Amino acid sequence: MSRVAIRLAGLVAGLVATASAQAQPLAVLLEDALAHPAVAARERRVEAAEATLGAETARYLGGGEAFASATRFEDRRIVGPFVPYDFAALPADREFARYGVRYRLPVDVFGVIAASRERARGDLEAARLLRRQETLLTLHRVATAYADLQALRRQARALSTRAAALERMERRVMAQIELGQAAKLDARVVASELAAHRAEAARLEGAVAEARARLAEAAGRDAEVTADEIMVPAWDPAAAGDTLPVRMAESRARAARADARAARRALLPRLDVTAEASQYEGGGESPDDWALGIQASIPLDWSARRRSAAGTRAGEAAAADARAAEREAAHRIRVLESAYHAAVADAAALGEEVAQRREVLDLAEEKHRLGAMALEELLRHQRDWLAAAYQVARARAAAQAAWSGLQVLLGTAPERYIRAAAGDGG
Prior knowledge:
The protein is of the alpha+beta class. 66% of the residues lie in helices and 13% in strands. It is built from 9 helices and 4 strands, in the order αααββαααββααα. It has helices spanning 2-16, 26-33, 37-58, 112-178, 184-219, 244-265, 302-369, 375-410, 414-422, and strands spanning 63-78, 92-107, 270-281, 288-297. The chain has a 4-stranded antiparallel beta sheet, with no helix packed on it. A hairpin with a 6-residue loop joins strand 3 and strand 4 (288-297). Helix 1 (2-16) runs antiparallel to helix 4 (112-178). The protein is elongated, with a radius of gyration of 38 Å.
């Protein structure tokens, strides 16, 4: 059994060891996370929304075209516009060309373009908020995975300490059995404890691999932690009110209302200023033609009227979504705050418990060595100390996760998040 204990100690020591070539501070990994493809995708969507807003604004400038044509008829035709002319001198030919420009400038009397610009502005705001959310979610994944690795490393260190104690116990029990001072049952008890310990080490190894995979996905590199102490920033007592989900819902509601207004106003009469200048070539002449006018039109589109009604309902639904998001955000803040304070208090209490259980365990080991305590009782004290050591690290990681979740909810600036999350422990 001694070899089993040695292999177990080696496995746990391997979990505790840090690969210096891959070790990275939390602040560096958080900076790396800003280059995540998901964040880059949101950045491209923001640029697309900015281009859309620019396109809607450019509608005020109108639009036109340059044109050119060459025509051949079966017989001679008059070349140029039909205007009062000396009919005997009318230029005529079977082939002639025409080229020129025409332009249409809208007069936004009823605010159709203005409503479309407001909708595009709402879409741009929503895209920027989604970019902020995606960035913070990526930072959240890095910070929580890093804290989980820190907690697991502390657990691995405690597990390694117990593995060494079990190895010493195994050697002592085997020696006592040879001298007839202990029963073979004690050896079986130690063997079963070693088997359970080996299973715990295997589970810990799997948890470490899973946390490292999450960290590698979010940060873009495989890395080890550099700090033992999990950084838990202070809770902001003023954290409430204007949250990121609420701002996103409100921007979508504004965009939906603007879209509905644009659909309604598109049913109203349209007014455009038109201009055209052209030049003819044919029959040995080059007459020109230009015109400037005002064009009014009234849309007759029943489908557009139905779409307008649907847009109104969509705007009302988006407003209701914004109110629901406000309630949900307030609820989530209360939940996160409760989880944070509970985890901080738990970590503080467990820290004292670990220290006390360590003293109790040292005393129990001495009593067992002197024969004043049963082996089962000593093993129970070891398990209690190990469980408390596990829980204190998990409690600090839970507090850090609650704080990080709040920052995502509030839409904290990424630069501020990185500074607060890394702190002195990064």
